[in-house]
Write a structure and sequence with these properties.
It is built from 15 helices and no strands. The chain has about 425 residues and is mainly α. The chain folds into two domains: about 5-80, no CATH class; about 95-295 and about 310-405, Na+/H+ antiporter like fold (Up-down Bundle), CATH 1.20.1530. The protein has helices at about 10-35, 40-50, 60-95, 95-130, 140-150, 155-165, 170-200, 205-235, 240-260, 265-275, 280-310, 315-345, 350-355, 365-375, 385-405.
Length: about 425
């Protein structure tokens, strides 16, 4: 029987088997990573790397394995896209608009500096390693995308570290959190602009106009949808229909964002979450969305990163690129965020704390890299440097923040005045 004549039922069975293995392996390695102090997403990525060569359907007959492997990859790709929409929708639901407004101009400037400096230094690094052959070329946009990957900050990992240190409610802690949230918004906008410009679908003016139109339409539509959901939420509090309808809106926003405005679908999903973040049942919606995301879609998304990571091309050039990428990724955030905080009136210690808190990378960097892979802006083997940056920054930031927040004790034998 040829591959094309293989029964649909057989293909479906192999997809079911593969997904079962992926979910179990991803969760096991994710929890194992958490126990040793590494974010779960790192363990799920490692699961993908391991399963890339171990999934059982790769050992079937040649004719069967080709089509089953292809169909399974396609299914995982579809589920991963849904997973990333859920992740960004949940991030939007968890946004605290009051905190963003209260943080004011300072957090916005720190966030902007934490995006611009890594973007510039990351792009310059790529130019230095790959060469510069003019503006508007494919290599130019690929280099620009390397800088774009470095713009993201992991809000969740930063919050966890600050909670553990008991500094989450301090002035510096609130500044870090607000700046990290705004940083992600800026990062998504940069991603949208870079992908839109590289696609060649229109000039910069048209792209800017489309982006402005998107936010105008989002605000108008968002206010209408928010009022409808607020009315419905008051009449049916804690109804299962609320998160279901909200999820439907998120998918529609994601589709319309990319289909009609040429903006990344994850932006639409994030905006949809922000629309609902002030509802009474926003946390209830986030909880319900996270259940589906945590159990199925997120493991598939992060494992798919590992499945797509091609380590066969790992050589000395890529190894050196990875080392430089990690160094630039860490240093650029400290330079951008600490430097701007120092200029805004924070002392040196506080500025260093802010820079360190903004240094960690996580799921947003992976999402940006994933969008770049889909758009042909980055090759699969360049996921390895991104994964390395996430693992290293996630491990060292809690340690460095602990030392930066450590109170300086008075010398032995001295008396503190009352």
């Amino acid at each position: 029987m040829s591959a094309q004549e293989l029964p649909i039922g057989d293909i479906a069975l192999q997809i079911i088997l593969s997904v079962g293995i992926i979910v179990i392996t991803a969760k096991y390695l994710g929890l194992l990573a958490k126990k040793i102090g590494i974010p779960q997403v790192a363990g799920e990525i490692v699961a993908g790397l391991a399963l890339r060569f171990l999934l059982p359907f790769r050992h079937f007959g040649e004719a069967e394995s080709n089509i089953i492997y292809s169909q399974t990859n396609q299914f995982i790709a579809y589920m991963s896209e849904i997973g990333v929409v859920l992740i960004m929708f949940s991030a939007g639901l968890g946004t605290n608009l009051k905190s963003l407004v209260k943080s004011g101009v300072k957090s916005t400037i720190i966030a902007a500096s934490g995006v611009i400096i890594p973007l510039v230094l990351g792009t310059a690094m790529a130019f230095a390693l790959w060469g510069f052959d003019g503006f508007g070329t494919q290599k130019f946009y690929q280099s620009l995308f390397i800088g774009t990957i470095l713009t993201a900050t992991s809000v969740s990992i930063t919050v966890a570290a600050l909670k553990e240190l008991g500094k989450i409610n301090s002035e510096v802690g609130q500044t870090i959190i607000s700046a990290a949230i705004i940083d992600d918004v800026f990062g998504i906008i940069v991603l949208t602009l870079v992908l839109g410009a590289s696609s060649g679908s229109g000039g910069y003016v048209e792209l800017i106009l489309k982006t402005i139109a998107f936010f105008v339409v989002s605000i108008i539509a968002g206010l209408i949808i928010y009022r409808i959901f607020k009315w419905y939420d008051n009449r049916h509090p804690h109804s299962h229909r609320i998160p279901i309808y909200g999820l439907g809106v998120a998918f529609i926003f994601a589709y319309c964002t990319e289909r009609f405005f040429g903006i990344a679908d994850i932006t639409g999903a994030y905006i949809a979450g922000v629309i609902f973040c002030n509802l009474h049942d926003a946390s209830y919606m986030e909880q319900k969305i996270d259940v589906n995301s945590y159990m199925f879609f997120s493991p598939l998304f992060f494992t798919s990163i590992g499945l797509k990571t091609n380590l066969s091309g790992l050589n000395m050039d890529l190894l050196w690129f990875s080392i430089i990428f990690v160094v630039i990724g860490c240093v650029s955030k400290i330079i951008g965020c600490s430097g701007s905080a120092l200029c805004l009136g924070y002392n040196r210690k506080e500025s260093l704390q802010i820079g360190l808190g903004m240094m960690v990378r996580g799921e947003v960097a992976l999402i940006v890299a994933q969008k770049g892979l889909t758009a042909g802006m980055v090759k699969a083997e360049y996921f390895a440097p991104v994964i390395l940056l996430i693992i290293i920054s996630s491990m060292i930031v809690p340690i460095l923040l602990g030392k930066a927040f450590k109170e300086k004790l008075p010398p032995a034998g001295t008396t503190v005045a009352e």
